[in-house]
Amino acid sequence: MSYPVLICDDSALARKQMARSLPASLNAEITFAVHGLDALEKLEASTFKLMFLDLTMPELDGFETLEEIKKRGLDIPVVVVSGDIQPKAKERVMSLGAKAFIQKPIDKDALNAVLRELVEKKATPQTYAPVAPVELPILKRRDIYMEVANVSIGQAADALARHFDVFVHLPLPNVNIFEVSELHMALRDLADNDQVSGVCQGFSGEGIAGEALVLLSDSSVADLKKLMKVPADSEELEELELLMDVSNILVGAFLNGLGKQSEVRFFQSPPVLLGQHIPIDSVIKNTTGSFSKTMTFEVSYTIDKTSIRCDLLFMFVDESLPLLDNKLSYLMEDF
Question: What architecture is domain 141-332?
Fold first, then answer.
């Protein structure tokens, strides 16, 4: 007898990792869903004994999917597997009915511990006919970088959330190879004609190098000062300190997450202020550097119940890409 399992994640790499991590003894019959709406359709059409659910997805994210499962009265134990590791995210999914939370990248010991709790034990050993092998997703280079970025930005959001005691909304990252002109267009789209404050930090490790850019709109800076209850008589100094704090927190946590996945120890330079309350074109002028083409990881964080938005971009120099590809090549392999 098989054990029907639904794995819901928009990342092809994460679906493959989850499927490969399930123990053979479970005799899992695996079905994949690529977002929450897809998962709900499959839950309505078939019966599953266990579901693994990502949080950061298009169409319907994990939080919304849990709400719909509860609303529809669907009886399915759900284990959340996510890179969004904020304490408030964990609290929220458990309050919505999830049975457990596992941090990405998947740890087999943590998974097995959850399975021991959730999978019904049989009184006597039974022999099951093996199920047909599931067709695993075919991975592309972009799939690897999207999931690696997803885990890393989750760690950055967690660091920001803990530092300011807030809940940070974590959207899907964008991963792109840009010509410099295209990068400038992307930056203008991010700024959306608003005045911004920008901080830049260089980073390097084992030949992999680039720059991180943190952008805060003027409205975000004002709200952030209110959130931190900055005294009016020290606003200018406190604002600069806040900018530097936010940059160090986000860049440091992201590089730590990327470094763990690629087994590279990254070093970051001190943050450099590009300007406060300036047009985005002034930021662009200061970040032209030596890039001719760059791979970028881009994410826009927002803080719950505020208008605060922080844009984070990591730009890798051309020469770094083959080295980073090599460091992450193990993710392309079967395991």
Answer: 3-Layer(aba) Sandwich (3.40)
